[in-house]
Amino acid sequence: MKQLNDFAPRHFEKTSSCLPFKIHTIEWIKENGIDLPNDYFMLVWIVVGTGYYRLNLQKETVHTNQLLLIKPGQVHDLRFGDGLKGYVISFTDSFLDMEDYSREPIYNPIYQMFNQTNNIAIDNELADDMCDITEIMMKEYSRHNLYRSEILKRYFKIFLIYLSRQLESIEQAPKQSRNTAILQNFMALLDKNFREYKMVADYAEKLSVTPNYLNEVVKKLTGQPAGYHIRQRVAVEAKRQAIHPDNCMKKIAYDLGFCDMAHFSKFFKNATGVSFSDFKKRGTVLQPVF
After folding, report:
1. Which residues pair with 68 in a beta bridge?
2. Are residues 197 and 255 both part of a single domain?
3. How confident is the model at residue 139 (pLDDT cuts 50, 70, 90)?
């Protein structure tokens, strides 16, 4: 098997930045960092090693053949400890046409997976096949040949099919119920509209259900009502922006739809358990994970 960084690009190319799909080794990310718009999903696959990573100020243990799932807007800081090797795959829903669920049914369990868990253990035998596909994607990504995007999309679809088999082997998923569909559509709407809509009634109207019913469904499937998820989605984006030294509270509050600084400050403290100023001080002096 080739080394993980055999095909890793050494720097961001302008053409790559236009492609809504990116794949790099963990070693490359550690050296160059990561800078993605808010609408990217991310898969972090630990192929070799046991150690730590830090996501959104939280330090977590990872091990070989563990796949981390990160939804759009969740990343404001991602660091890896020494000894970890693997891949970081980033993509948008438009790259896979995930917005049109009827077009590619294979993507439904993948989308549901991002909403329900943040990590998956990959079977060793299946990991070998997935690694072969990943190396092909790395090689294609490093080139800029004709139909590059289409080739990457097709190989990535194969990668996701393998991943779907892993999910099926863990637990035979029941047929999608109406409540599950409501939850998925709510989370999709939330990711796209949290800046503008902050009331449960806003999302209930778009889903053609009552606010009480939406809260009931979401709480039954996730353990928390819809209002909690709305607040946490806004808080995650606030923290993601606050990690950057140049972003002041006024700028972040305005971007998230708050006109009153006092209101935003109170919201931030209630949602995160720490004041904005304390978080700002702590977040901008992060140390690497050891």
Report:
1. 44, 119
2. yes
3. very high
The answer to the question of residue 44 being in a domain is yes
The one-letter amino acid code at 249 reads M
pTM: 0.60
The whole domain housing 57 covers 14-170
Between these two residues, 187 and 37, which has the higher pLDDT value? Answer: 187
Q: Which helix (H) or strand (E) holds 53?
A: strand 51-55
Q: How many residues does the chain have?
A: 290
Contact of 290 with 279, CB cutoff 8 Å: no
Count of other CB atoms within 10 angstroms of residue 135: 17
Domain-ending residue, one of 146, 170, 194: 170
Return the axis-axis angle of helices 226-242 and 178-193, rounded to nearest 10°.
30
Q: What CATH number is attached to the domain comprising 232? A: 1.10.10.60
Q: Is residue 267 part of a domain?
A: yes
Q: Which residues pair with 80 in a beta bridge?
A: 53
CA–CA gap between residue 44 and residue 89 (Å, rounded): 6
Pinpoint the alpha helices (H) of 103-177. 107-116, 124-142, 148-170
Report yes or no: 118 and 70 within 8 Å, Cβ to Cβ. Answer: yes
Q: How many CB atoms lie within 10 A of CB 138?
A: 22
In this structure, the number of other CB atoms found within 10 A of the CB of residue 93 comes to: 19
- Give the count of beta carbons closer than 10 Å to the beta carbon of residue 137: 21
CA angle 176, 178, 180 (to 5 degrees): 60
Cα separation, 71 vs 41, in Å, equals 5
Neighbour-count burial for 177-195, b at 16+ CB within 10 Å, e otherwise: eeebebbbebbbebbeebe
- 191 contacts 232 by C-beta, under 8 angstroms: no
Give the pLDDT of residue 218: 93
Encoded tokens for 246:
């140049």
pLDDT at 97 over 60: yes
Please count the structural domains in the chain: 2
